Amino acid sequence: MQQVVKLIDGMNKVVGILLALMLGTMSLLIIAQVLCRFVIHYPLTWSEELSRYLMAYIVFIGASLAMRHNKLISIELLPELLSGTKRKVLHVIVFTISIIFFVILFKQGIDMISRVKMQLSPALGLSMAIPYASIPIGALLLALNSIAAMIDEVTSKKEVSN
């Protein structure tokens, strides 16, 4: 089980680097767009569209990394009322429901790609399958990171106290 977690964590290192590159690229694109529009008076017609598509990937990839480290927003009322094994069981149930949702999201994302693959984006002329691919890619990464977090929860020896 720990080998699976190590494999997912290794993948997360690569994904984190990719996330940083996308975030840096998006930031540079937005700065270039502002400078070109207001200083040079020649707006870049494609930069806003590319930034928007990068943002979709950044959100899904960032959410998957946050899922791995239990940093997503959550309501902790019920887990705070429970202790020890009961809390672990609740977390495993929540991870299981999350994984089921991510599998459904993955399948629906693949279906969506097949519907939009012939459409082209207005400014870049890219197949709309490329931006919509962020949905199944993100769902897959979220599911994998949920599995790693669940394995950590199950194999953790420390007792969680109130």
TrEMBL record:
Family affiliation: Belongs to the TRAP transporter small permease family.
Localisation: Cell inner membrane
Top-level taxon of the source organism: Bacteria
Transmembrane segments: 14-40, 52-68, 89-110, 130-151
Gene name of the record: siaT
Protein name, entry field: Sialic acid TRAP transporter permease protein SiaT
Source lineage: Bacteria, Bacillati, Bacillota, Bacilli, Bacillales
UniProt key word Cytoplasm: no
Organism listed in the record: Paenibacillus solanacearum
Matching Pfam families: DctQ (PF04290)
DNA-binding is among the record's keywords: no
Tripartite ATP-independent periplasmic transporters DctQ component domain sequence ranges: 26-154
